[in-house]
Specification:
The protein is an alpha/beta fold. It is built from 14 helices and 13 strands. The structure holds pyridoxal-5'-phosphate (PLP).
Length: 395
Amino acid sequence: MAHRLQWIDDEIANLTSSGLYNRIRTLSSAQGAYLTVDGRRVLNFCSNNYLGLANHPRLVEAARAGVTRYGVGPAAVRSIAGTTELHLELERRLAKFKGSEATITFQSGFTANLGAIAALVGNEDVIFSDELNHASIIDGCRLSGAKVVRYAHAQVDDLRRVLKAQRASFRRALVISDGVFSMDGDVAPLPDIASAAHDHEAMLMVDDAHGEGVLGRGGRGIVDHFGLHGQVDVEVGTLSKAFGVVGGVVAGSPALADWLRQRGRPFLFSSAMTIPDVAACLAAIDLLESSTELVDRLWENARFFKGEMQRLGFDTGRSTTPITPIMLGEATLAQEFSRKLFEAGVFAMAIGYPTVPKGTARIRVMISAAHGHDDLEKGLGLFASVGRTLGVLPA
Ligand SMILES: *Cc1c(COP(=O)(O)O)cnc(C)c1O
């Protein structure tokens, strides 16, 4: 038995010796500006909890009420006995919030991408995909069986070049881009991408995981941000980041939602979103619709932190959103920086190859509305001191 799995030990040893083995930290507190991580209380710059909703009393209460009424598990896939009135209410409320005609929810953003892409294109079709798109888009593209043509990151000229060269040889075409790119915090030039897609009779899909609850009026997402209602065929979002819960959503036409109810494989073959998750998401929409306060605070915090980091002399790359990369170059330096921050009480992740290109290692700071001004000041002070110790900033 053991010898058949020996290769796993060998692979793990390789990862460890090359510094690529991922040691996963353990939390023993709720989400918030501070976390207890591996037994230490640390300032949290790692979570996607943009609006502080993951532990919000209104969401917790809604989840509790949902459980009291319906129990815990969905006990079925959506298409058999797993669709409750709460699931339908969430889909109606998401459509209204986002200003789209219809939505369909999935268990996660990851399964939303797999389900949507594979239902929209197949062997006779072509996908034009930004080279920095998220892993779930890459996997969805592979699953679909369509030919995948990558274009240079956010370069609409390059997208137009490949559309012109390849579009006509295929039946259907789908252009896909992340909305906000998760490692750099830049926003896709969606209006120009949309006109390129339209000019070449290609469907357009955007994955707005980091824009849902962040971009647009009161967090209504990237389509709202650019005023592109009706021009983006497929808008994927996640309920796992700013919404503070877990789940995925695809927004678009009623026909699209209907087609995904017939052909979205994770919808048909994996159990429904759980009741407490659905109930908490409904409470998140209530909060977002009642006030823009959390979204406004998120952006104020992000602008303040990024501005001060730049003033200190750090390079924050091409970010225009609350995702704040601190560009360091070498992976070993980024890891050392992250380790020293952790010792000083700041939890901020080092990211290197293969997640980002070689030589562009960084620390990625995730800013949240849950951070108070004092928290950000404290983080800035510790970044400056570690930066001087490691020679990233002048002493
Ligand atoms: C996080 C992320 C996902 C996955 O969302 P989950 O709801 O966590 O599965 C998909 N796409 C992008 C661009 C993401 O950043």
